[in-house]
Design a protein that fits this description.
Elements: E1 20-27, E2 31-36, E3 39-45, E4 53-57, E5 63-72, E6 77-89, H1 93-104, E7 107-116, E8 123-128, E9 135-142, E10 152-158, E11 166-168, E12 189-190
Parallel strand pairs: 3-11, 4-12
Antiparallel strand pairs: 1-4, 1-7, 2-3, 5-6, 6-10, 7-8, 8-11, 9-10
Length: 192
Amino acid sequence: MACNLTHGRGIPCRNLIGGVKYVYFGNKDQFTITSAASEVTDIELADPSTNKLYRYAIRRGNASVTETITGSTENGTVVYAPSLNLKLTGLSKEDQNELKLLAQADLIIFVQLNQVLASNDHNVILCLGATNGMDLNAGSNVSGGAFSDLNGYEWTFEGQEFAPMLTVADFTTVPFDNTAFNGGTPIPVVTS
């Protein structure tokens, strides 16, 4: 099988910004992801009346996405391991209950970056765990010692995929309202 290269890459403009704005969690078995050329082109819900995405707002500088690439020349394999690290401020019984569900679930995670598209200033959205899902594999819930310490949660979600993480097709007005998604019906997002 030939693995022919298709293009080169120049140096991008100095208009990029790091960080995460929002994280969206969903139960993987409730979503069907269709992609082409490293982009999510369709998201279909198993049951549009009950399936949803759950949005978590992130304070500036408290989340990051990393994808680790591990190859084996001897075995002829390449594995992509997406990872999401995030901090959420404030401990609560509601978050404790949701934490247990997140830890037990097979998740699909969408991450809305601070980075924007040059064409319309919409945020870039990444899809993590499109094929094999994401798991909450590490974390801590901390009270902090000093007044200025973190009181909240530090969580790490990890996955293993056969292809790099996907970028979600641009939205119209709000994330996940793409007319190609979910039969033209915006995907419901729970924000609180």
